[in-house]
Amino acid sequence: MALLPILRYPDPRLHTRAAPVREVDDVIRKLIADMAETMYEAPGIGLAATQVDVHLRVVVIDVSEDKTGLLALINPEIISRAGEQVCEEGCLSVPGIYDKVARAEKVRVRALNQQGETFELDTEGLLAVCVQHELDHLDGKVFVEYLSQLKQTRIKGKLAKKARITA
Ligand code: GNR
Ligand code: NI
Asked: What is the torsion angle, in degrees rounded to the nearest 10, for the CA atoms of residue 166, residue 1, residue 14 and residue 12?
């Protein structure tokens, strides 16, 4: 396994639309293993391939407290949504920034598993937030794009300043 470097907002590569996986093979399974290791090490509750500069529709999620709930979603699609919730979100690509985003309370997802089989999953609460946050990444969207222009400008300034210090 290997830790993968995570792209930082406002890197333009975060706005790439990811392509569907054509075949679930060992290359994809290795990507998922590396993404899971990277997510746990960060630590985070989700990671989209976009964030590690791989522009394929692959996501890992684990909202459990003890790393026992790893979910890998390949070519995920939201097939229904219901309700609304507002959650304080963060993102490994936007470190140190947290803000409220309104999303669906429940979503049903269809995806392929690591064997290439289709499955469906009903999610709600934090898991539903994470699914929506990760699918946005695959479409090139970062959560800060839901915030006001003023906040986005301030966030870019903050991260640029931090990048100068850490570089
Ligand atoms: O680790 C993460 N925490 C989180 C908290 C609230 C809403 C969404 C998230 S996802 C984030 C990891 C990440 O950046 N995934 O893309
Ligand atoms: Ni994120």
From this structure: 60
Task: Tell me, in angstroms, the distance from the centre of ligand 1 to residue 93's CA.
Answer: 9
For the chain, the C-alpha Rg in angstroms (whole number) is: 15
Residue range 35-63, pLDDT digits in tens: 999 999 999 999 999 999 999 999 999 99
Identify the pLDDT of residue 166. 76
Strands in the chain per DSSP E: 46-48, 58-61, 71-82, 85-89, 99-103, 106-112, 118-124
Mutational pocket test of ligand 1: of 35, 39, 45, the residue with most ligand atoms within 8 Å of the beta carbon: 45
Query: Residue 37 catalytic?
Result: no
What is the distance between the alpha carbons of residues 159 and 123, in angstroms, rounded to a whole number?
32
Q: Is the CB of 8 under 6 A from ligand 1?
A: no
